[in-house]
């Protein structure tokens, strides 16, 4: 398959085939490789995509998004709306009706009590839940009977589908986790590594940052699924090795997130063992700009939560860093047709994509002039600008990956041209995106001046995603370093406008506010968007049933995967 055909869309290129399995487990083993190795099987304790996706094979939400972005019922009878009576007329409650055939993998019945517990688990102020934004505005969750869940909001909520929808908000079992709440949550190793679930597979062995072994859930609600008896989920290595393992050697069946140059992908496909699959969603590669002072001479906690950054607090510096970047070249060398220039945090759906900024043209001379005007000059001729005894000298970190290291090298060069000195640092992806509160190298702690990564939001509404930049969503020691506001951006006007979004109905009005929120973040320079990335993965030619989903977990329909005859 040529790269130009990759973006035709997963639904068209890899439409779900009729299930070919005769009985559960009849197709043996399926082998999955993620070069960013999962470190935990509990997405409430990690914001890392690799942890969310691995756990999605085991624990599930009430509803999720299909490959078109449409919300579909998963563990419930239907999607509640005002028309069917599931959403109250005053928009202050939503009622979910649980299917009666859902059991936990230990054979016990899945009930509304588990859903209620999950909400209380994440909303516990002593925990630092990584997905706390999903429960913004929730006043209470009731379980009036085993099949009914009522979510009550403090005020009218036009989009009441954040709790329990999508891979980032699954249900965990009350019986397993009820002694693991609050500050104790990260200490429950057995529970966090081996969650009881309702999904198609069960963890039998978990080795953090290495490999996960799973087997078919014998209590899964469809008696003929999953087709595979076991899963080997390998983590670590790099994107190139993962791509080769599927498309060249055939050792693995599925490889995720192949951040590889287009010519590399094409060469791998020519081996004939597998093909690349891709589709655009909301994934944005960006540089986060630290709003606090990561000086290692400061006490550990204060490095991320107290003092403003002595240099990056200057808006001219932040803007100049962005102006110096040649985004079209980054797209060309890093992603080809699987990438687009973006100036926004929210590039999709199209209704939410702001057209306020144009960052598509590199402007080295403009960046120099901006710094000069702001008083940053190279007075001693060493090539580094300074002002008031401070130099434009930064540490720029990211995860270890060939494309990201190429980006780092180019960006360092461009920044050097405008008088900025850059120290590059790359960290093993399993550590960088891990949730270990004791590690100094996680992206949440952000012990650097600048850091680069990508993430996205599930579904087609960015309310929760934009809520990640609220003042109280910054990771802190008190939150066990969980929280998605890693740049520690804080603006009362932003918080107030986001509150307005939570109360606003209608796609046009919501899109208008969302664009304003996006623009506030970009104008403030709290992040520097680089590339709107297509989700690029690879599947074996013998693996059937795969439907690439850019709006939810990429493994969302693994229960439907099967082995094809060739």
What does this structure look like?
The chain is an alpha+beta fold. It has a domain at 280-534: Dipeptide-binding Protein, Domain 3 (Dipeptide-binding Protein, domain 3). 24% of the residues lie in helices and 20% in strands. The relative contact order is 0.18. Residues 1-21 have low confidence and may be disordered.
Defining traits:
566 residues; alpha+beta; 3-stranded antiparallel β-sheet; 20 strands; disordered N terminus
Alpha carbon gap, first and last residue: 17 Å
| Low-pLDDT segments, ≥5 res | 1-21
Mean pLDDT over the residues = 92
Give the percentage of residues in beta strands: 15-25%
By CATH, the superfamily of the domain at 280-534 comes out as Dipeptide-binding Protein, Domain 3
- The coarse overall form would be globular
Number of helices: 16
Strand tally, please? 20
Alpha-beta classification = alpha+beta
Major sheet size, sense and barrel closure = 11 strands, mixed
